[in-house]
Design brief:
The complex is a heterotrimer.
Chain A (H helix, E strand, L loop, with lengths): L2 H34 L2 H29 L5 H35 L9 H22 L2 H31 L4 H33 L1 E2 L6 E2 L9
Antiparallel strand pairs in A: 1-2
Chain B lengths: L2 H13 L2 E12 L2 E12 L3 E5 L6 H7 L10 E9 L2 E2 L7 H7 E4 L10 H11 L5 H14 L3 H4 L12 H14 L4 E5 L7 H14 L4 E5 L3 H7 L2 E6 L2 E7 H6 L4 H7 L5
Parallel strand pairs in B: 3-8, 3-9, 6-7, 7-8
Antiparallel strand pairs in B: 1-2, 1-4, 4-5, 9-10
Chain C lengths: L1 H22 L5 H5 L15 H32 L5 H14 L3 H24 L13 H25 L3 H9 L4 H29 L3 H4 L21 H11 L3 H37 L4
Helix pairs in contact in C: 1-11, 3-6, 3-8, 4-6, 5-6, 6-8, 7-8, 8-11, 10-11
Chain lengths: 228, 266, 292
Amino acid sequence: MTQHFLNELDRLKDCLLMMASRAESAAKTATRAVVERDDELAKQVEATDHEIDQLELEIDELAIQLLAKAPLARDLRLITVAMKICTDLERVGDEATTIARRARELSYEPQLKEFVDIPRMVGKAMAMMDQALKAFVNEDADSARAVIPQDKAVDALNRQLHSELTDHMVKDPKSITRCLNLMVISKSIERIADHAKNIGEVVVYLCEATDIRHNTARNSEQTHIQNP
Amino acid sequence: MSQTQIENAADHEKAEAPLIVTRDLSVHYGAVQALNQISLNVSEHLVTAFIGPSGCGKSTLLRCFNRMNDLIDHVKTTGKVTIAGHDIYRSDIDVVQLRKKVGMVFQKSNPFPKSIRENIMYGLRLHGMRESNRLNEVVESSLRSAALWDEVKDRLDTNALTLSGGQQQRLCIARAIAIQPEILLMDEPASALDPVATAKIEELILTLKERYTIVIVTHNMQQATRISDKTAFFYLGALVEYGNTQAIFTNPKNRQTEDYVTGRFG
Amino acid sequence: MAFATAIILAFAAVILSNILWQGWEAFSWRFITSRADQNMFDSQQAGVLQMIAGTSARVVLMTIFVMPIGVITAIYLTEYARKDSLLTNLIQSAVNNLAGVPSIVFGLFGLGFFVNFIGGNLDLILRPEQAAPYWRNPALIWASLTLAVMTLPVVIVSTEEALKAIPPGLREASMALGATRLETVIRIVIPQALPGIMTGGVLAVGRAAGEVAPILFTGAAYYMSGYPSHLTDQFMDLGYHIFILSTQSPDIEGTRSILYATVITLLLLTFTLNLLTILMRARIRTKLRTFH
C-alpha cells in the first residue's frame, strides 16, 4: 500500500478520535445539565450534535474511499471497525441531545430530590465509554473485553430507576411529567452504555479477528471456505 | 468449539484430499537456492494460490510439479514430490505422461503460430490421437470449456496470433485442457491482460475448478482472494504460511504474511 | 546513410557496366548453350555449357552436403548443448575459426584430406587390386565436399540466428504439453526457422558459386569435352575458366570478350540460383504467415 494510503488511514483514525471526544463530552455535558439544571449547557450539547453528524459523514466517506483500494487483513478490519464505531458514536451524540432536551424541560420545574441514581448511572456509562475508546486507541483487546460485562450493571440501574419512577408517578400524579423525562434520560444513559459495549466488542474484533458479538466466539478461521 | 463446528471441520478435512504432496523439497540453480525444504499439500478440486514477492520461489515450486525445471541447466532438486501417490522424481517416471496429467499455462500466452484448430490438435496428436472426427470433437469441447468457442467457431483455421491477448490466453488454456490433465498449473495467467480479459479468465478458473485441481501463481492479492480456496505465502524460498484464503487475507498468523498482504513490504 | 548507399550503388554500377561493355560482343544465346571445344580461345566457337553444368553440379552437390550437417550442428548447439560446457565452446570456436580460413587453404585441405586421404583409403578398401587410382583423383565429389566444409560456418550461423529468434515460450509450451525435445524441434522449431535456414543456404550458394581456389586441386579441369556424369568425374567450371582465359590465352585482346562473357554467365548463374532459393523461402514465409 502506498504512503498516501497509510496517511489516509491515519486521518481516518484521527477523525474517529475527534468524533469520540466530541460525543463523550456531549454526553458528559448533557448529564451535567441534568444535575446542575443549567439551560445553557443544554443548548451547547445540541450545537455539538451537528458537528458529530458532520464527522459521521466525513468518516464514512473516507472509509469508502479507503475500501475502494481493496485493503486486506488488519487494514480491512480497521476500516470496517471504524465505520461501526462511527455509527455508535453518532447515536451517542443523539442520545446526548435527547438528554439535553429533557434536561431543559426538567429545569423548568422544581427538582425531584430522591433520584441520585442518575449520576451513578452516568458515572458508570461514561467510564465504560472512556475505557472502550482508550482500548481502541491502544489496541488493547483485554481492556475492551472488560467493558462488556459492565453493561449489566447499567441495565440493572436503569430497570431499578424505571420501577422507582413508576411508583412515584402513581403516588404523586403531579410529578408525572418530570418522572417521564427522567425515565427517558435514564433510558438514554442505558443506551449510551450499550454503545460503549458495542465499541468494546468491535475493538476485540480489530485486535484478534474474533467476532464476540451476540455472545458467540467466531473466528475468521472457521468461516466456510469458498463453495466447491 | 460447538458440535456443528467440529462436524464442519471434519467435512472440511474429508473434502480436502491431498493430490500433490511435497516433503522437504529444495531446488538449487547452481549455487543459488531457490526453494528451501518446502512441505505442502495441494488438495483436489480446489484452487490453491501461491503468493509472495518476486524471487520468493513460487514459480519454481510450480514448475516442480510438471518437472519443467528439468529444462534449466544446472538445476538440482532434492526432496519428494508425490502426485496421486506417485513420486514424480523417480528415475523411471515417464515425463511425457506426467506432463499429460499436469498441464501448464504460462504468464505470457504462447500459442503456436498455427491455426487455432492446429494449436489444440497439437497436444492430441502428440499423444496418439489420429482420427479426425474425434480430433475435431475435442477441439470443440476444449474451446467450449475455455469459454472461447463462440468467439472463434467460425474461424478455427485462421492463425492463432490474430486473436486478442485475452483470447490467446484462453486458447492456451483450451490447448492445455484438451489432453485431459488432472492438474492445471497457471503461472500468473492474467498478469498481461486488461481488467475485462482478466475477469473472464478468473471466471473461467472458477468453473474449471470442478473438473481440475488448479494451482495458480499470482502477484495480485485481490485476485487470490477472488478465486482461490487456499493460499500459500512464500518468502526467500521458504514457505511462510499456508491456509484457507479467508484466513490468510483477513487474519494472517504470521507477521511477515500480514506485512506482505497489507503492502507494507519492501 | 543515403550517401553511403549511393557510393555502394555507384561502385556496383561501374563494375557491372564495365563487365557488360566488355563482354557483350561474345555473349549470346549460342554462347551459353554450346559446348566449348579444344579451341576455347576463339570467340566464334567459344561456348560455356560444360562450365555451366560443372559449376551447377558442384554447387548443388555442396548444398546437399552442407545443409543437413550445418543445420543439425546448429540445432545441437542451440537446442541441446549446455551453454557453458567445454564441448559447446570448442565447437563454437571451431566454427568461428573456420569462417576466417582463406579459400586457398581449403583447396589444399581438400586435396590433402579428401583426395589423398579419403580417396586413397577408398581405393585401398574398394579397389585393392587396381594399380591406377580411381577415387584418389580430383573429382566432383571431393570439390563439393571441400566447398561444403568452407560454407559450413555460414549455414551454421544463419541457422543458429534463425533458431534463436524463435521465442523460448513456444518451446516451453510444446514441452509442457508432453512433447520431447526432439518432437518440439521437428514440429515447432524447424518449421518456424525454415526461412532463416534457407537464408543460410542462399548465402552459402552465393559464396561458393564464384570460388575457384577450393576447387583448383580438387576437381576443376582445364578441358573436358563432356559433362560430369559420375561423382568421380572432373568438371569444367566458370570461375576456373575465367582464370584460364585471362592467364593462358595466346591472344589476350581477342579473348577478352569471351572472358567477360563468361563473367556475365557466372553472375547470371549465381543470380538464378539465389533467386530460386529466395523464391522458395518466400513461399515458405507466406505459408507460415507469422505476425510478429
